[in-house]
């Protein structure tokens, strides 16, 4: 830099270079040679800094300090804290791969993930070797509780159902959800991203909208979507032949439509656009996670980031329009509260009144965040449940026949399934539970210790990430018996709590405790309605082109689709 001079300041101020032309006076006062260090008093240094031009102040003081602070935070979170946590766990003799910090397991993980992706597996319900292979290997080597590192983050894998229940029940408030990264929050800033009082207030408002009694009002929406699906399939299939259909995208459309219709009633067509955009956003998110994703990368103007932003803006605008219209209608007494949005707004008003607040507990932005989340949390989860059910019933035609017999007995061949009838479907329920056990849509839950806590005889410091691999618990022979990898719906004949060998439940497809899935009844009624409509009209089997490849993306999806041969009955 032309004409630059140096001055040295006493600790803690670092050395600076500044432009003499713009700061002559400040530099004259502050410049000292190494031979006269004692002549700079702290007051002089502060005065010198105060006299710098704003831009040089920024360049030579604020920016370096910010950089130093950022570097310290990175070092702290990627090295110092993880090492401390890892050492605290090792010192208690917790088994695992704790010494392979930080890249040993990452390399192993990449190798196993590549091997898992390379080829489909034989059609077996034992999917654990393919899904989360790293955790699978660690558990088989080190037991039900083990430490590992995923990159710089130490994790404790907890594979014991009793401890999983204890963590998820969170009676003492020692555990919290792992903080979402910013992208997930931007896609759906709702219940899943909240903690503490905000979560509790939102959950209290949202719960009533999903009560079984309220779902009755949404049943026509469920039925309309199921009818559309089967009518489309009937159009594909010739009357005497069989037709191959990839049911995975079909069910994604169905579940997106169901949420649009049950959330927005008459504004359904805008809802459909939202669900298209949200699906694309979910795929973009996966692309982002699969690419080299480093903190801060999301702010770069890459094509993917621009697309994500544009989508988010459009979804936001559509939702804002729908909510504003509904607010106006409610003020004029024309509000419709037969759909999720109406029920949510009604519950918001009631809770706000009860709390004696002048401002609504959930703001417009909050409501938009929750609506986005319904798509994000409710679409692919239910779509994969239906997809794996079709695959499994194709492989086990005897159960397909039993389910069809039950559906025909309850509804006949042509009658529209209703809630009373749906509640009588015992075999269908057992089948869906068994599919949720073998192919849980959410394969793993994460929690983090919020404060030092004891669990199963080990003291965990605050900040440890706990991975709860639901998929392994659901396939554990100690829990379910030697036939754990087989499809045996009859194990649920006496309900969920009697299904395993243990005397307490070990079935967590919807989570457990206070944060259990708010939409579980919604999802099950929706799945039963769709499955009943399909069983009433079609028989089905696997297509020769089907390749079994369960793969965990955000949910446990069929990597190469789910090609099913449909035949009209
Ligand atoms: C088969 C279908 C579904 C499965 C397997 C499923 C699974 C789950 C699981 C495991 C959780 C707990 C996450 C945790 O504890 O960290 C959860 C939470 C949640 N689910 Fe679902 N879900 C399904 C359908 C739905 C539907 C249809 C909706 C809404 C329309 C929905 C909305 C939510 C919401 C809002 C949460 C957050 C609850 C909270 O944090 O308080 N889910 N779901």
Automatic annotation (TrEMBL):
Annotated GO biological process:
brassinosteroid homeostasis; brassinosteroid metabolic process
User: What is the recorded membrane topology of this protein?
Assistant: Single-pass membrane protein
Q: What is the annotated localization of this protein?
A: Membrane
Which positions, given as ranges, span the membrane?
Answer: none
Supply the PROSITE patterns for this chain: CYTOCHROME_P450
User: Major place of localization?
Assistant: membrane
**Could you say which cofactors this protein requires?**
heme
Q: Quick one: which residues bind heme? A: 517
Q: Name one GO molecular function term.
A: monooxygenase activity
**Gene Ontology CC annotations of this record:** membrane
Q: Any idea which UniProt keywords this protein has? A: Heme, Iron, Membrane, Metal-binding, Monooxygenase, Oxidoreductase, Transmembrane, Transmembrane helix
Q: Does the keyword Iron-sulfur apply?
A: no
| Annotated spans, Disordered | 1-20
Lineage top rank: taxon:
Eukaryota
Q: Which family does it belong to?
A: Belongs to the cytochrome P450 family.
Alphabetized PANTHER family for the sequence = CYTOCHROME P450 FAMILY 72 SUBFAMILY A POLYPEPTIDE 8, CYTOCHROME P450 FAMILY MEMBER
Protein known as = Secologanin synthase
Taxonomic source organism: Urochloa decumbens
Q: Give the classification, highest ranks.
A: Eukaryota, Viridiplantae, Streptophyta, Embryophyta, Tracheophyta
